Amino acid sequence: MDHTIRQTTSAASSTAFVDVLVPVALDQTYSYRVPRGMALAPGDVVAVPLGPREVLAVVWADNATPDPRLHNRLKDVGEKLDVPPLKRELRALVDWVAGYTLSPRGMVLRMCLKMGEQLGPERTRIGVRLVGEPPKRLTPARRRLIEVLSDRLLHNKSEAAKEAGVSTSVVDGLVDEGTLTIEPMPRPPPPPPPDPSHAQPEFSRQQRAAVDAMRALAANGSFHVALLDGVTGSGKTEVYFEAVAETVRRGKQSLILMPEIALTGQFLDRFTRRFGVRPIEWHSELTQRTRARNFAAITGGEAPVVVGARSALFLPYADLGLIVIDEEHDQAYKQEDGTHYHARDMAVVRAHIAKIPIVLASATPSVETEVNARKGRYQRVLLPSRFGGQHMPHIQAIDLKRVPPPRGRFISPELAEQVGFAIERREQALLFLNRRGYAPLTLCRACGHRFACTICDAWLVDHRFRQRLVCHHCGFSMARPPVCPNCAAQESLVAVGPGVERLQEEAAHLFPQARSMVLSSDLITSIETMRAELNEIAAGRVDIIIGTQLVAKGHHFPRLNLVGVVDADLGLNNGDPRAAERTWQLLNQVVGRAGRDQGRGVGFLQTHQPEHPVIKALVACDREAFYASEIEARERTLYPPFGRLASLIISAGDRPTAEGFARRLASSAPRDEHVQVLGPAEAPLAVIKGRYRFRLLLKSARGFDLSAYLRDWLAAGPKTKGNLKLEVDVDPQSFL
Ligand code: ADP
Ligand code: ZN
To answer: Which terminus of the chain has a lower count of CB atoms within 10 Å, N or C?
Structure first.
């Protein structure tokens, strides 16, 4: 229980002190004096002087007892802000996440506030109203303004000026004359809450047990983890909506996390159909004003359901009662800069601390989650088949060694034939290739020169729509030169390998009548256009969809029955310990877009290795074969979840500095029989933005506290100086 502070009666004085945490990259708290007449409790949001500035901070501990010699030097808390305090559960989460990820506590706190300086109450908007007589001197501008306000109602000041075509100084002039008054605009009323009974669907017999489980867990309301495990199209969304509905009925808030919030247009429509109103959104694309309004609604408890990207996990909900993680296996939940955290794992931690239920939904659970379900730590809620009697897509491998595409092409004759049939049947086809741009490499036919980024260890990717060669790691780009910069040969540059833009060219050549559309993250100009494009596809106004992993997730395209994976091997051989798992998940997801409405879905996997266990498991739709072999391999090699990993990434502006520090760091590692320190090794992506990178990998037994080990090590070990940088990544997902 939070409690209001008592004035301490220490020997020195009757002054009270608090320790506050500042949302900057610092781990420690700072003591401040509480001015007389101000009552503060842990969680209160305050403004404090820090150096020359006044900054936001959160009271972390009351009754602080700073060194008495400091008392006179401590500054006063500036003011207490009129916003809801951070609850104990959220403060505990900040401490926990910081301890686990080795991120400064202030950085984690920053994610809870997210509003920076604008945390204060929403700025009141200014209204203007006609109250008096027009002045004697009436300019045309004043006349127009009075005309606009002639209804004597309250108008927004800047909008009224705009409507009258005058500047706001004309408004001010008439206020001085007593013709108009200025009043604050009332806040717009909050939208009506979601109605849990608005349009509850009829559930199939297969779905009913899962629905019961969802309602029970929400009604119970205590900590509980359920894996909602259902094939693509089985109705997982409709089913977990019942947990949300129950939570709304109980008057508590629900948070639904999504991996790609930019793509949730269809989701929002479905939510609206089910609950009658749109949920509150939280992601990086919101405008400042919407952000402020949504933040206020979330903290004020006026947002019963929030749909958000991973950053929504850290918000100060007034009364969170349920968390749902949609597509829990998705890699996008891992934040790879700043605080390296996995939103799914931290969501389970938050649910545990807040003592609330959490639902993890997936058709292809992560191996970690699958093992937790097998061991009974998570409840498995099964949806074994598609809704409405639709079959799962039939999957077939196309052996590229036997029937390769024509030279310089990437669509095999067999796949091309199938796409042709689909178009004849007036159905859609999806060609999937997880590669943005036109071609991953450009080289000179005459001298062999390859276009590489000057500051990264990477080839430049040819982007024809933008007419640039682009580095995917730092964003550097250049126009494609007319002659080779190395040998000056003319017209000697060739594109090597395919990207989605090149596939579109090939599709246009093969099917000149077909309408095609490329969906790729670099082509999105705004969420609105993206949502509009997805609606075009869903409405059937596109024949061939060509896309990167952006199209793999969650979409429901009723006319899509054929999915062709152009390069099924792409993610298999990249040295990532999760390569098999990722490929299994991604290809299941993308093929799962087929045959969701009517007709039979089919998926074709173009591959050079049809005998690879992952390809075989996909073709046989043998989920058990995949998990059994993958779990066995992880257990044998002590990889997660049977062991633990952490990465240390060292970078510097030159190679010897980075390597030298990495070596010194490695040799300073405390000896512990439970930990293996591997490396340093040059990172697979050896240079990014001119920074040379080395990696250390730590491997430990499952029960070992790797974070504590790291903390001791880094506290005692060599310190980074100059432009050396050390990043800590506990439970790494990326090994690049
Ligand atoms: P998943 O998330 O498992 O891929 P969805 O929740 O997207 O599945 O459901 C697939 C399709 O079936 C959607 O169009 C959804 O509206 C529909 N659907 C699922 N269950 C029902 C139901 N009980 N009543 C009506 N439509 C349903
Ligand atoms: Zn670059």
So the answer is: N
